[in-house]
Design goal:
By secondary structure, this protein is an alpha+beta fold. It has a domain at 83-249. The protein has helices at residues 3-23, 29-49, 59-64, 66-70, 73-78, 148-160, 200-203, 207-214, 229-233, and strands at 86-93, 98-106, 114-121, 140-146, 172-174, 178-186, 189-196, 247-249. The strands form two sheets. Strands 4-3-2-1-6-7 form a six-stranded antiparallel β-sheet. Strands 5-8 form a two-stranded antiparallel ribbon. The two termini are 13 Å apart.
Length: 258
């Protein structure tokens, strides 16, 4: 278990203990003796489930591991010299409307080719219930094989976009906005960056058009625009932001707190 996971387990266990302890005040006996152990066990179970380890996940697993996915914990852990280059790019285009994710995996054969897995998440589509009870939340997916020259162009566009440069530490991002998160393992080095709209860095992005061109999901891209809470939630001052709302703060090479 990583040190970050242990730290988060302690904090979650403490919060659960305080809540559980208050609810059991006056009961004494076995409840008071066992509550710390119960809280610690539950916290570890929750946080272990929240760690994204790569591969396909269902919508429930995706929700639990979303922050770990955005932080690219799996890419970070496997990034080492000799490992095939990988990248994860997430385009958040107002979470209630569209989130696009892109996974680039270089061929393990060393031939320069790569695979692009695209996924577009949006409002639940109940027409997809035929795919199972979680079908409406699966999103649209496609897989594209990239030729060596395509893969080279992608990595060049990442470099030209300054995706391998310093991350904007301290930048606060809220899912009701438009932004890109990029994570990459390139030649054994892990890189993380963020680009929020409107900004010069967002306007200078060169990888987006390539990804959109290779994206075979057939779902139109949601372009950046100014949107108010009223536009997004139907309420100018929502007491609770609907949908899979989230917020993150960028650190030097990932998300703060992870």
């Amino acid at each position: 278990m990583s040190s970050n996971l242990i730290t988060r387990s302690i904090f979650v266990a403490l919060r659960i203990y305080l809540c559980f302890g208050r609810s059991q005040q006056g009961r004494g006996g076995m409840y008071s003796r066992l509550s710390p152990y119960i809280c610690g066990f539950v916290a570890i179970l929750i946080l272990t489930a929240c760690a994204f380890e790569g591969g396909p996940v269902n919508p429930l697993q995706r929700k639990l591991s979303w922050y770990s996915y955005l932080n690219a914990d799996d890419l970070r852990a496997s990034c080492q010299v000799g490992h095939p280059d990988q990248a994860r790019l997430v385009y958040n285009a107002i979470h209630t409307e569209q989130i696009r994710t892109y996974e680039i995996s270089s061929s393990s054969y060393g031939d320069g080719a790569a695979t692009l897995d695209s996924r577009v998440l949006g409002p639940a589509s109940f027409a997809k219930l035929a795919d199972g009870i979680l079908g409406p939340w699966l999103g649209d997916t496609s897989t594209t094989t990239l030729r060596p020259e395509d893969a080279q162009q992608f990595w060049a566009s990442m470099e030209a976009s300054d995706a391998f440069g310093p991350a904007p530490a301290g930048l606060y991002l809220e899912s009701g906005k438009f932004f890109w998160l990029t994570a990459a393992c390139r030649d054994g080095q892990f890189y993380y960056n963020a680009f929020v709209w409107p900004s010069d860095s967002f306007d200078a992005i060169q990888f987006a058009d390539r990804l959109f061109a290779w994206d075979m999901t057939g779902v139109a891209v949601n372009p950046p625009r100014n949107a108010t809470n009223l536009d997004i939630y139907g309420d100018a001052s929502p007491t609770r932001k609907s949908g899979a709302h989230y917020q993150v703060t960028i650190a030097q090479n990932g998300l703060r707190g992870f």
